[in-house]
């Protein structure tokens, strides 16, 4: 392996389920029963504020600069960007990859006009999607694909669409991405599997939405140093992994990754409680390092050393 990694760092822009955390039902509940949601009203509870799952991959480019590749742009992306773009001194989005066409992955597309309108930051954003995702976007947001369908003032973001194959690697800004197809629930009408895609890049695997990982996808995950994996809460769910399912998956990888970060949490999960549970697990099973990610967490890679920056892990 080269001594210089392609990936400089990854930053978690969102680590919550589709509805996000906190839940308005909990914050307005007279009985005030939800520990996680209520904690978000305090400074120390900020790690429990979770926007839709999204990841920023910062890539060391051959020209000496760093490129910003975003994975998913859901309902809360703009709120995430308002928080983390200034915080980390970010500006441009060099590419966007979409894992699937659910609202929590694509509904922030219109907000990207803040980057491209009047070329304020950049002229265009390259977007990488499967044909299935693109067809859904054409229905949901036709004007972002075909600007002739814009109405009103006609202020729309400027995109360059790139169709990818979920079975074939592709390269963005010098970094190769290998798609990791996973099941994310079923179609209610046909009962057929609904598929999302994760990605492997530079010995990192990222899977944000899954309840089943096919064996051929597992095979592509072996040898990863960092794995980010969906884990909604403690119970099994029809379209997401539970905490235990995520842990069992990691234990079956060869070798076990140096670090595993869980993401996609509901309000059932409290960050500090789960962190302590995972530390106890690490004591029982040496070599099994698992922690909950949180919005704003930055994970840096340098040679064979992996570092986390942010709140205590």
Automatic annotation (TrEMBL):
Matching entries from Gene3D superfamilies are given as: Ribonuclease Z/Hydroxyacylglutathione hydrolase-like
Tell me which Pfam families the record gives: Lactamase_B_2 (PF12706)
Q: Which residues form the Metallo-beta-lactamase domain?
A: 51-267
From the Swiss-Prot or TrEMBL record, give the protein name. Metallo-beta-lactamase family protein
Q: Which InterPro entries match?
A: Metallo-B-lactamas, RibonucZ/Hydroxyglut_hydro
CDD domains, from UniProt? metallo-hydrolase-like_MBL-fold (cd16279)
Q: Which organism is it from?
A: Gigaspora rosea
